[in-house]
Amino acid sequence: MMRLAAATMLCSLAVPATAGELSLRLPIDCMLGETCFIQQYVDQDTGTGARDFTCAGLSYDKHKGTDFALPSFRAMQQGVDVLASAPGTVRGMRDEMPDTGYSKDTAAAIEGKDCGNGVVIDHGDGWQTQYCHMKRGSIRVRSGQKVAAGVVLGQVGYSGRTQFPHVHLSVRHDGQVVDPFDPDGKITCGSPDTDTLWQTPIAYAPGGIISAGFSGTPPTYADIRAGDAGRTTLSADSPVLMFWAYMFGSQAGDSLRLEVTGAGGMNLTQTIALEKPQAQFFRSFGKRRPDTGFAPGTYQGRVTLIRNGQQIDTQSVPLTITP
Q: Where is the M23ase beta-sheet core domain (predicted)?
């Protein structure tokens, strides 16, 4: 769900490169796995399918970069910096596209500008990095400017061909896409390459929980994506007690377990079968208000994503119900 014009190159596969020639730091100022996550990787499939460097499905057809995503539009609005992954010289930038994302209504305006607002940096010896989908008006560098690794380029946005706020990092050598997680192109399923372009090793997450929370009304997907659905306190006379979870990277056959325990002996559990791969999705369950209202006190919601009988991710969220 990404791509500046230079990112729309014809190659669909990352090509081999010599690891160690370029040393990369994270292109985003966040805590990976806590305040941001990797949504998708470079597509390693030469056909019409998609597979990431572990041979799993966290990619899509002809995807040419790594997507570092934010958990909500609220996080984007608060401002998260995009950082230069390596020292170099700015070779191009764009900063005027609105943060509208991609839809049938915006498709014509985005045509040929899939990357949205972005920056291209030349690192010498044929190496370039490209940073896409940045926030309009946020870019702080100009063409010809020399930058050090870690310099702020701008902020994460929602411009160009995207459906969620993130920065898309493309790495190229001599004009060809290189997967920073597998720079030599020698994929061994189940045994990811330990020789990467990252300065600090990045653990692979095969999917996971973006956020979870309680609400006093049935949550909407728009509110969850916006970051507006969660509540830490509800009243005893709330119409319903809902627990929801927002996730990424599901596979067919996964299951999701939602649990709520708390005051008055509440003990609710629901296991939901996930029938298809989804980049991002949410599920919720809950209970209508009893005639006497919900018992005041403390509650806890817990969500667990399960794959092949193994826990992929879990998250717990507290709630207080007041009289």
A: 62-180
